[in-house]
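Researcher: Let's do a round of design. I'm pasting the structure tokens now; please hold your answer until I've finished.
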């Protein structure tokens, strides 16, 4: 079963995506955000299935080793002005990475940062 880590799960975009992903039978969904109470409420709204879990995560200092995601989806905003800490963490654990950016500049800067070595191992 593939593990999908949804960062920003309790936000506007994240909660909608969680509702869709929570219906998929062949994945383990890990809902991640900064606060526990909203995560627990979201998990309960999805039916508290055993293949849906929650994790507290600081997107500026993410520690993904224990979560072992196959895919990390970043739905946490604001998107503009952020760094690439989550992308780097995903690379470090060998996970695929999807960012729901709502601004062009962070996406355009991603490839340049990769080639400058900013996204490699810390």
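Researcher: That's everything. Go ahead.
Model: Designed sequence:
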């Amino acid at each position: 079963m593939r593990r999908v880590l949804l960062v920003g799960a309790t936000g506007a975009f994240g909660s909608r995506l969680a509702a869709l992903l929570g219906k998929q039978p062949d994945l383990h969904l890990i809902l991640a955000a900064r606060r526990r109470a909203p995560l627990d409420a979201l998990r309960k709204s999805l039916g508290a299935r055993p293949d849906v879990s929650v994790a507290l995560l600081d997107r500026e200092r993410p520690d993904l080793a224990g979560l072992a995601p196959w895919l990390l989806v970043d739905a946490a905003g604001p998107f503009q002005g952020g760094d690439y800490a989550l992308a780097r963490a995903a690379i470090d654990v060998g996970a695929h990475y999807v960012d729901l950016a709502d601004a062009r500049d962070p996406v355009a800067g991603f490839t340049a940062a990769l080639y400058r070595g900013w996204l490699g191992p810390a």
